[in-house]
């Protein structure tokens, strides 16, 4: 397992961190923290990126200011203890200087004197000039495993909600906008998304049509590009729900989403989302995903998005956004 070390940062606390490949695919939420840095903050690099030569790190501060940094994985041999370090030159607010250190090297034992610090400006540290900050739009995928139905059901009950999670046979209250807002805020804020449940996944949404995504499917404006859920991401049956900020679909509604369970990203079956749910919105105020107003896209109570990931890769892609 590798670690991401945040050794300095500027901006407005709290901060949210995401990591993806260089093209912005398979973006994964890796954690959030509050307060000043230093002292350094450490986060686990998802196993999906352990062999990636370059990763893209996104930082979102409390003002929703987003900064993107490319970090190139290169081996450095400092004196006297060998270590593997990733460095990059941060951009203005918020700026981050992450380094990824294999867990086999004791993070707590620095190889430099207390009066010396290694920064991207030191010639012995490889640096990558990050691309200019750009605001990207993302669709967020929540995977609720049936094996955790008791846990999320108990949590939602403790919050006083009548929505106990899709795996318990319940949908959010669609008869009351205010209750829908409460139900979904509590659901998204469940701590299991960063602990015992699979981490929240995200996928890039293009603002214009044209070209192909990394899986060879056409990019269509405001429809998220092809997203892969690798085999074994969750063991057994789970419920898959997409949550997208209203502005990230250009003000439209993601009425249908393509998916496949045959492992082929180019043989997608398009299914309509439940209108009684996506006609409601909720304004999220927590830290699991960026704060904002969202719609929920699911096949509930129909079961196409109730899928077993144990023996096949799953692929999703936005199909139709209408206004």
Description:
Strands 2, 3, 5, 6, 7, 9, 10, 12, 15, 16 and 17 form an eleven-stranded antiparallel sheet that branches. A hairpin with a 5-residue loop joins strand 5 and strand 6 (66-76). The chain starts with a strand and ends with a strand. The longest helix has 12 residues, at 177-188. It is globular, with a radius of gyration of 20 Å. It contains three helices and 18 strands. The chain has 323 residues and is mainly β. The chain has two domains: 2-102, Immunoglobulin-like; 137-322, no CATH class.
Radius of gyration: 20 Å
Quickly give the structural class.
mainly beta
Distance between the amino and carboxyl termini: 44 Å
* Major sheet details: 11 strands, antiparallel
The whole-number mean of residue pLDDT values reads 82
Strand element count? 18
How many structurally independent domains?
2
> Order of helices and strands, N to C?
EEEEEEEEEHHEEEEEHEEEE
Number of helices: 3
Give the uncertain stretches in residue-range form. Answer: 74-96, 100-134
Name the beta content range.
Answer: 35-45%
Q: Quick one: overall form? A: globular
Helix content: under 10%
Question: Which descriptors apply to this entry?
Answer:
mainly beta; 11-stranded antiparallel β-sheet; 2 domains; 36% strand; 18 strands; 3 helices; globular; 323 residues
Brief description of this entry?
The chain has 323 residues and is mainly β.
List the helices and strands and how they pair.
Layout: E1 2-10, E2 15-21, E3 27-33, E4 41-44, E5 54-60, E6 66-76, E7 83-87, E8 95-102, E9 137-145, H1 149-158, H2 177-188, E10 201-205, E11 227-229, E12 237-245, E13 253-260, E14 269-272, H3 275-278, E15 282-284, E16 292-297, E17 306-308, E18 314-322
Antiparallel strand pairs: 1-4, 1-8, 2-3, 2-5, 3-10, 5-6, 6-7, 9-10, 9-12, 11-18, 12-16, 12-17, 13-14, 13-18, 15-16
